[in-house]
Design brief:
This protein has helices spanning 8-23, 37-42, 73-102, 116-124, 155-186, 248-252, 274-280, 315-318, 331-339, 353-363, 376-388, 390-405, 408-421; strands at 2-3, 29-32, 46-49, 108-110, 128-132, 206-208, 225-227, 258-262, 287-291, 307-310, 324-327, 344-346, 366-368. It contains 13 helices and 13 strands. α1 (8-23) crosses α13, α3 packs parallel to α4 (116-124) and α9 (331-339) crosses α12 (390-405). The strands form 2 sheets. Strands 3-2-1-4-5-6-7 form a 7-stranded parallel sheet, with helices on both faces. It has a 6-stranded parallel sheet with strand order 10-9-8-11-12-13, sandwiched between helices. It is an alpha/beta fold.
Length: 422
Amino acid sequence: MMTAMPFAGHARPIRAVAAELVRRGHDVRVYTGRSYTHLFEEVGARAVPWQAAPDFDERNYAATFPRMRDRKGFRQVLVNLEDLFLGTAPAQCTDLLAAHDHQPWELLAGDPMSLGTRFAAERLGSRWASVSPIALWLPGRGIPPTGLGLLPARGVRGRARDAVLGAVSGAGTAALTRRYRRTRRAAGLTPDRETFATMWYSPELVVAAGAPGLDYPRTDLPRHIRFVGDLTDDGAPAADAPALPDWWDDVVKAKVPVVHVTQGTANVDPHDLILPTLEALADQDVLVVAGLGHRTGPLPGPVPANARVAAMVPYPHLLPRTSVVVTNGGYGGVLQALRHDIPLVVAGGDLDKPEVAARIGWLGAGIDLRTGSPRPGAIADAYRRVTTDPGYRAVAARLGAELRALGGTRAAADLLEAHLDG
């Protein structure tokens, strides 16, 4: 049994791992929201939809979770954690226990943000692993407090900064840890010693998207955490895969660099990044391809002559032809860009995206704009820097080579099979 939160950035990477396991002859079930059951059925897995858990549409969180209406930034993070992730966990556990009663499994492999996975595994005494499509950046020695997009400390002042902010961050996450413990009781479990940083992950095995080279230098990462690169299956069938837009020949025949801009699939207000990027590059000798995520209506603004727009553009076709990606910092999209050796301009606004942006900037694989809603001038300047300094592309290529070498979905399946047999 696998679990996947019903978000595009979670379901699709986990679908890729499920597909590889199915190809190897395993009977795979996946517990997820109804909007994503078809994705798993396409690759031969059996979908188990949310029942007791309050299913939702990621395009309209507020319909199910009213406190999430019109929230961004740190407030959104807190409400996400309290209402969506922690709040639905006991009901997720109920669903998983019912699925196990119907047909037991040998291994539970779960999305870490599907916290019901942990609860069900503990209730059943089941062997379990985490399959993490999100960035796994745990706190540790010499690492700045996570969530603030900070760079590693330098000197005495930097260490003092981290100590102060670490204490403040600890006080804030202590409230969420207490909420986690109350949620455990609601799921019929006794207290444990997990913290906000660790409660999401299996202590047995964590199969993590990404690479060690994408984090700040550290020597204290637990041995059961195994990075496997980019969890993308470009060859998997997908009935809902976006068709190539009618202007695709413009990309194929382009004699100028192709720049892709995306805000991902969650916060998709085009005023944040899409429209400023179109304005920033309108006079540049480039072809801009904008992906609008779940937006289906026209952009609320003019589209420059050198821009092409679609709701979704298939990455297996687009990224091999792309020179630079301007992104909100969604982790899956960043990994796919790096896997194609593409440097980035990152506007990380909320959730984990400031952390992604900070690491890309610190490593030198792109520019961290330090905001989720940059001005056109800042985007234009960042684009100029990443295209005139070959160092950015060189770092992106080094990280891309590391991601490719880690094995992706095949390595993930190898680790899960070994854990199943162990």
